[in-house]
Design brief:
Elements (H helix, E strand, L loop, with lengths): L1 H16 L2 E4 L9 E5 L6 H8 L2 H4 L2 E6 H4 L3 H9 L3 E3 L10 H9 L4 E4 L17 H8 L4 E8 L1 H4 L13 E4 L11 H13 L22
Parallel strand pairs: 1-7, 2-5, 2-6, 3-4, 3-5
Antiparallel strand pairs: 6-7
Amino acid sequence: MKQITVPTLALIAKILSGATVRWVECEPDTCQRVYFANHTSHLDALVLWASLPKALRNLTRPVAAADYWEGGPVRRYMASVFNALLIDRKKIKVHNSPVDIMNREIANKYSLIVFPEGGRNPTGEMRKFKSGLYHLARKRPDLELVPVHIDNLNRVMPKGEFLPVPLLSCISIGAPIFLESGENKHQFLARAREAVLKMKPHECEETDQEDEAPAEAGK
């Protein structure tokens, strides 16, 4: 059943958002990555996941808030379909932090979609990044950290609305970064945030990566 639902859900998400995708100095690849993006809408995780080529979708898990995606049978089912890694923010512990959970769940197989701002920011002005991305980069220096800018989704799914408003949005995916030797938390998070801001397009030209075969893993 889920094999049928996954492509259907991905197609619906792309149609509703009108999302176009730009790969800038970056190519689709099945190597382990952390796609980190700005966060303005509840649709961000779903639409970014749906915009990846099929081979990448199968290996990519969006990290999302359990209190939202477990809020009713429809959301719970959708979260299970796109294999979301749900974090219960009320049960965070020192020895079982979100970073520990992510590191354990991805093992040597999955990539992640994360939103370093934490909560949604419907104004579109990106907040400072929280420390989770830095700590994950320290624990897993092998992961490619890929900046993503999502444009217009806060208008597709306005705050307080239950149904999306059809409107073109744009997803821009940039060159991977890594934690550099001697770089402290503040420096890294500022650089990561700037990498996302640099991906904000003046115009977004449609590119269709769905049927392109990704490069082999382990570059």
